[in-house]
C-alpha cells in the first residue's frame, strides 16, 4: 500500500540539485528544480544501476555520472542512449520544512 | 526507390549510428554489418566488471528485437573485402554484394600487436572471446603478465588481482598512462596498484616472449625473465583502415574525415575509433579518439550528417577508467595546458585542471572513489566546450561550485 515517507529536509537539497534517499531496500533520488519545486524518482540509472544522486541536474534533466544517460526527472522519461528505460517517479509533498515521497 | 544506408562496424559507434538514423526519422533501408557474429555489445565491461562478475554476460547495445523493431537489418559475421565506390557497393569476403546509397565506416580499432610474437598464451583484449579466455586464466594461483601500462593493461591488472591472480605489469616508459593522464594522477594510480599487490616493472623493453605448453616466459631487454600463465598485451590500438585504404580514401592516423565526419567521397562517412578528425576547440588539431563516449557521440553525429544536417563535431574528448574502487575521468586534452590547478574534494578525491597560456581551460582530470569526481568533470567538460577562462583561484577552491563558474562563462 502506498505510504508517505519523510525523505529529507527541504533545505537538504540545494536548488537545481539532487540527493540520494534509501528506504525499504530501494534507492530514490530527490530533486529540487531551479523553480524550487521538489521531485522524486528511482535513484539508480536504468542503464547500469549507478546512483543518480552523483549526477548533474540541469534544468529538468538529471544526467547519470557514469555514462551520461539523461532523464527528465519530472516525468522520468529517458532522453536517449545509452538509456532507454524510463525512471519511475513518485509523488512529492513538502510539509513543515520536510520533503515526503509517496512510495 | 528507397534509399539504402549501410554501416560497416557493429560496435558502439556503428550500432548507435544505426539507431540514430531511425531516431532522426530516416525511412529508407538500414543495414548494419558486423565482423563478429554477436549482436552489438558494450566493450568497456570486458576489462572491468565483465572480468569480475560471477557469470560473464556481455551487455548488448541493441537486442535482436530492438533492431527488428527499428527496421535495422543486422548482418553479423560478415567480413567486408572491399568497397566499389564507382558502383556504390560493398563486396563481402564470401562473394556477397551489398549496394549502398550512403555508407558509414565505423570499423573501430584493433589491439596493436607485438611484432614477431605469437603463441597460445599471448592474448589481446578486444572481443567477448578474448575476455572469456582471460577470465578462465585469472583465478587464484595463476600469474598474469601484462605488457603495457595503459588503460586496458591497468584495468585488467586490477581485475586479475581482485580475482586472486598474481600480476606483473611491464611498462617500457618510466611511468604509467603516459599518454593523456597527468603524471601526478598516474602516480596515484601507480600507488594503488602497488598497494593492490601488482608488481610493476618500468623502463624495460620486451626482448622476446616464448609461449610454451605449460607457461609463457617474457624476456626483458635487461635480461630479466618473467614466467606467467598468460601474457596480456595492451600496447594500444591501431585504427582499422584497410577497407578505406583499399577504396582510395585518405588515411591520416585513421580514416581522415572533415569536421562533419565526411571522407573525400561525399557518400562515405567515418566515425569512432577508426577515424581522425579536426578538433576545433584545440585549434583544428587532428586527433583520433578511442573512447566509448566518442563512439557514441560520433555515431549520432554521423547519422545526422548522413541525412544532411551538416553539423560540425563539437564534443569535448572524454575518457573514463575504473580500477579497484577508483574511477578516473578526464575531459579535454591535458597536453594542451601550461598551468595546473588542483581542487581537493572529499575523501581523497581530486581534480587537476589544465589551462592554456591564454587562461582557457583545456582539460580536467579527476580521480576518486566511485563517482566522486563525475559531476565536476562533467561541468569542466562544459566549461572547456564553452572555451571558458575560469578564475584560477575559484577552480582550486572546492567551496566554489563549478556550476556557478559555468553560468558565468
UniProtKB/TrEMBL annotation, chain A:
Concerning its family, UniProt says:
Belongs to the bacterial ring-hydroxylating dioxygenase ferredoxin component family.
Q: Output this protein's name.
A: MocE family 2Fe-2S type ferredoxin
Tell me which residues make up the Rieske domain: 5-101
| Pfam families linked to this entry | Rieske
Q: Which InterPro entries match?
A: MocE_2FeS, Rieske_2Fe-2S, Rieske_2Fe-2S_sf
**The protein's required cofactors:** [2Fe-2S] cluster
What SUPFAM superfamilies does the record point to? ISP domain (SSF50022)
Keywords attached to this Swiss-Prot or TrEMBL record, sorted alphabetically, are: 2Fe-2S, Iron, Iron-sulfur, Metal-binding
TrEMBL record, chain B:
Q: Can you tell which superkingdom this protein's organism belongs to?
A: Bacteria
UniProt cross-references to InterPro entries, sorted A to Z: FAD-oxidoreductase/Apoptosis, FAD/NAD-bd_sf, FAD/NAD-binding_dom, FAD/NAD-linked_Rdtase_dimer_sf, Reductase_C
| Gene3D superfamilies given in the database record | 3.30.390.30, FAD/NAD(P)-binding domain
The chain positions of domain Reductase C-terminal read 318-405
Q: Which Pfam families match?
A: Pyr_redox_2, Reductase_C
> What cofactor is this protein dependent on?
FAD
The record places domain FAD/NAD(P)-binding at 4-299
Q: Does the keyword Membrane apply?
A: no
Q: Does the keyword Oxidoreductase apply?
A: yes
What keywords appear on the UniProt entry? FAD, Flavoprotein, Oxidoreductase
What start and end residues bound the annotated signal peptide?
none
Q: Which PANTHER family match?
A: APOPTOSIS-INDUCING FACTOR 1 (PTHR43557), RIESKE DOMAIN-CONTAINING PROTEIN-RELATED (PTHR43557:SF2)
Query: What is the official name of this protein in its record?
Result: FAD-dependent oxidoreductase
Query: In which organism is this protein found?
Result: Devosia neptuniae
Amino acid at each position: 500500500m502506498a505510504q508517505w515517507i519523510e525523505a529529507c529536509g527541504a533545505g537538504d537539497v540545494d536548488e537545481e540539485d539532487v540527493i540520494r534517499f534509501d528506504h525499504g531496500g530501494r534507492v530514490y533520488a530527490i530533486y529540487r528544480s531551479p523553480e524550487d519545486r521538489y521531485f522524486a524518482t528511482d535513484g539508480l540509472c536504468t542503464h547500469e544501476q549507478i546512483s543518480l544522486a552523483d549526477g548533474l541536474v540541469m534544468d529538468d534533466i538529471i544526467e547519470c555520472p557514469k555514462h551520461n544517460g539523461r532523464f527528465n526527472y519530472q516525468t522520468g522519461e529517458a532522453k536517449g542512449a545509452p538509456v532507454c528505460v524510463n525512471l519511475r517517479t513518485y509523488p512529492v509533498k513538502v510539509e513543515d520544512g520536510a520533503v515526503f515521497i509517496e512510495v | 526507390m528507397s534509399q539504402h544506408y549501410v554501416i560497416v562496424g557493429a560496435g558502439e559507434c556503428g550500432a548507435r549510428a544505426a539507431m540514430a538514423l531511425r531516431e532522426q526519422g530516416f525511412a529508407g533501408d538500414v543495414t548494419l554489418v558486423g565482423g563478429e557474429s554477436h549482436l552489438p555489445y558494450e566493450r568497456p565491461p570486458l576489462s572491468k566488471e565483465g572480468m569480475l562478475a560471477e557469470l560473464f554476460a556481455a551487455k548488448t547495445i541493441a537486442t535482436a528485437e530492438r533492431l527488428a523493431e527499428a527496421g535495422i537489418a543486422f548482418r553479423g559475421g560478415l567480413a567486408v573485402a572491399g568497397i566499389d565506390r564507382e558502383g556504390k557497393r560493398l563486396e563481402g569476403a564470401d562473394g556477397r554484394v551489398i549496394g549502398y546509397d550512403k555508407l558509414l565506416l565505423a570499423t573501430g580499432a584493433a589491439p596493436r600487436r607485438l611484432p614477431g610474437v605469437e603463441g597460445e598464451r599471448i592474448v589481446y583484449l578486444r572481443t567477448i572471446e578474448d575476455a572469456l579466455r582471460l577470465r578462465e586464466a585469472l583465478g587464484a594461483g595463476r600469474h598474469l603478465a601484462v605488457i603495457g601500462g595503459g588503460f586496458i593493461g591497468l584495468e585488467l591488472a586490477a581485475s586479475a588481482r581482485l580475482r586472486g591472480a598474481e600480476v606483473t605489469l611491464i611498462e617500457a616508459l618510466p611511468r604509467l598512462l603516459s599518454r593523456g593522464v597527468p603524471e601526478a594522477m598516474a602516480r596515484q594510480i601507480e600507488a594503488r596498484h602497488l598497494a593492490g599487490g601488482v608488481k610493476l616493472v618500468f623502463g624495460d623493453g620486451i626482448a622476446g616472449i616464448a609461449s610454451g605448453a605449460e607457461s609463457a616466459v617474457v624476456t626483458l631487454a635487461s635480461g630479466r625473465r618473467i614466467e606467467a600463465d598468460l601474457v596480456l598485451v595492451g600496447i594500444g590500438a591501431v585504427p582499422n583502415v584497410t577497407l578505406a585504404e583499399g577504396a582510395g580514401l585518405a588515411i591520416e592516423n585513421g580514416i581522415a574525415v572533415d569536421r562533419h565526419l565526411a571522407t573525400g567521397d561525399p557518400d562515405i562517412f567515418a566515425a569512432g575509433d577508426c577515424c581522425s578528425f579536426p578538433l576545433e576547440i584545440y585549434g583544428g588539431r587532428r586527433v583520433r579518439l578511442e573512447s566509448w563516449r566518442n563512439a557514441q557521440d560520433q555515431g549520432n553525429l554521423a547519422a545526422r550528417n548522413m541525412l544532411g544536417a551538416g553539423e560540425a563535431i563539437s564534443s569535448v574528448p572524454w575518457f573514463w577508467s575504473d580500477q579497484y574502487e577508483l574511477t578516473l575521468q578526464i575531459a579535454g586534452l591535458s597536453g594542451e595546458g601550461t598551468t595546473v590547478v588542483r581542487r581537493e574534494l572529499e575523501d581523497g578525491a581530486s581534480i587537476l585542471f589544465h589551462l592554456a597560456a591564454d587562461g582557457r581551460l583545456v582539460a580536467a582530470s579527476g580521480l576518486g572513489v566511485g563517482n566522486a569526481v563525475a559531476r565536476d568533470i562533467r561541468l569542466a567538460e562544459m566549461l572547456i566546450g564553452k572555451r571558458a577562462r575560469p578564475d584560477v583561484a575559484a577552480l582550486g577552491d572546492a567551496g566554489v561550485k563549478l556550476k556557478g563558474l559555468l553560468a558565468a562563462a
